[in-house]
Amino acid sequence: xxxxxxxxxxxMRVEHVPDPRIINPRDxxxxxxxxxxxxxxxxxxxxxxxxxxxxxxxxxxFMGEVVEIGPEVKNLKVGDHVVVPFTICCGQCFxxxxxxxxxxxxxxxxxWMVEAQYGHSSAALYGYSHLYGGYAGGQxxxxxxPFADVGPIKIPEGMDPEKxxxxxxxxxxxxxxxxxxxxxxGQVVAIWGCGPVGxxxxxxxxxxxxxxxxxxxxxxxxxxLAQQAGAEVIDYSQTEDLVETLKAMTGGRxxxxxxxxxxLEAHGHSADYYLDSAKQKLHLQMERANVLRQAxxxxxxxxxVSVPGVYAGLIDKFPxxxxxxxxxxxxxxxxxxxxxxxxxxxxxxRGDIDPSFLITHRVALDDVPxxxxxxxxxxxxxxxxxxxxxxxxAA
Amino acid sequence: xxxxxxxREPVAEKAPDTAHHSHHQPHDNGHRPPWxxxxxxxxxxxxxxxxxxxxxxRRSAGGAALATAGGILAFRGIRRASASSAVHVERSFTIxxxxxxxxxxxxxxxxxxxxxxxxxxxxVTGNRSSRWVAHAPLGFELEWEAEIVEExxxxxxxxxxxxxxLIPNRGAVEFQPASQYHGGTEITVAMDYAPPAGRxxxxxxxxxxxxxxxxxxxxxxxxxxxxxxxxxxxxEGQSHGRRSAFIRMVKAANEPSPRRGRPATEEQQRVVGxx
Lengths: 395, 275
Prior knowledge:
- The complex is a heterodimer.
- Chain A is an alpha/beta fold.
- Chain A has helices at residues 41-45, 94-97, 111-118, 161-164, 170-179, 196-207, 220-228, 242-249, 271-281, 290-298, 320-325, 337-350, 368-376, and strands at residues 2-6, 12-16, 28-37, 56-57, 61-69, 81-84, 87-88, 124-125, 142-145, 153-154, 188-192, 212-217, 232-235, 257-260, 304-307, 329-332, 361-364, 385-388.
- In chain A, strands 3, 5, 6, 9, 10, 17 and 18 form a seven-stranded mixed sheet that branches. Chain A has a six-stranded parallel sheet with strand order 13-12-11-14-15-16, with helices on both faces.
- By secondary structure, chain B is of the alpha+beta class.
């Protein structure tokens, strides 16, 4: 089969590799019908995620048709169409049983690596470094799905794949980010980053009862998408002091909840952004955390800062004094995907939301290495790339 | 060949209850490692050793039980004391399955090679006796007979190798219900290996490397996966693109030794002193 493999910093290649096969009794193999590139794949592309190996198949947002089933998978059959959540969960450990799916004890074969770094290891992910399990990803024609009886959700026949594909990551991730804010009717939520997760966070915050959503970015097409959803928008590149602007928009209180949908490769024009950038270039620090700092500064007293953006290492100058002084609640973590699959599928079916609004680019596998660069540089108004692994390359 | 210097004598098939419980403290102090349950290390060795010697001299069923209890008491003390000269490893894990299930899975030693990577095979040869085959470097195999020296249903299990093995070893496992909130079983495994004299010493060093504790940790993680998820998570055998020469080299070096090369001939084994 063909698969997109990581070969180094800014070096993705399409390779011919052996078709995946059943390895464990609870595996299945899917023939991938649609896949997508996630903003977090850009962290891989830029080489910020350690323990990638040359030849690793990337991609963690995919759906497909079941073509092979392990003997212990009783709830699926060949021919079923499924969306595969990006976290791999055993369904049997304490954490899975408690619904803390992304903290699964048993899915990561390299758990010891994460334990050394974080103290404990969490669920494995598809195509996202050996630290996160080293499982082959879904920017490919086929994929092996471990614990297939737990994760994948069956899609009713006849549903448009583009409407359900984003159940694999970004819709639940944006939704959890909003849910973690414990939004009360009448509250104001500010969201940094109007990329795919930010867009779903905007819409989820509205679904969960936020009175106003303030969306922050600098790309006009992304701000436009936020506006179309009914958010007020701020182009931070045109704003002198974002925290003051947010205060001015909320009667001096600050937003009741702040969502950092940007993560470790933030941009900005504050002093701490330039300091982080310099340290990152010198390999003194992995993260540029200016958005997280800003969110903590802007959030009203007793509010919540919810972080769906990815962070991986240590942050310098973390303003914990402000978080403590204002009594903030900080929440983050990988998405507990399986909590949200069914309810969000139902919202799509009811027409509460049509996730396909995001898609700006549809490509074949052979186009993927090039489109990574387009996506990274936000060229061609690129917001979300969907891959049809069986399509012929556009001429 | 050096033998671990703790008393060991044939174990009575069914020892009286007093022998089983005399050295266990009440369950509520359960979060200490197994050897600490018996109090001071030195005290354990002295008292346990004396008890064992006394028991052996009685040459009766009661005496044998006493000897067993003493031997185990000494074992638990020695475990810590001998840590500098032998390999001592110990790890705890919480397994989200009932104590009875975890105990009975472990009690059938034939299950051990399913999660203990250095073991090739364990054959149960009697109620308390078993024959173990372990992978050694360069395709060699180590074999020994072992015997269960203490057993308390759903609570505790200890075994040790019989004399005549190149690397005398022993192990003990404690099973406890985890907190009410978590459910499941807290399992603590402790194992000891004594270095053999002579040329076997080099083999010993290769077997255990610099961090012998890592092996038991990963063994227990596999046990947890097996009992909770029914399978051991792996990516071995999955598809990938071309690997760099460096990664291929590292992977080849980390291949478990039995897969590399042919098994050692009897002559080679004799030269190195295995068996």
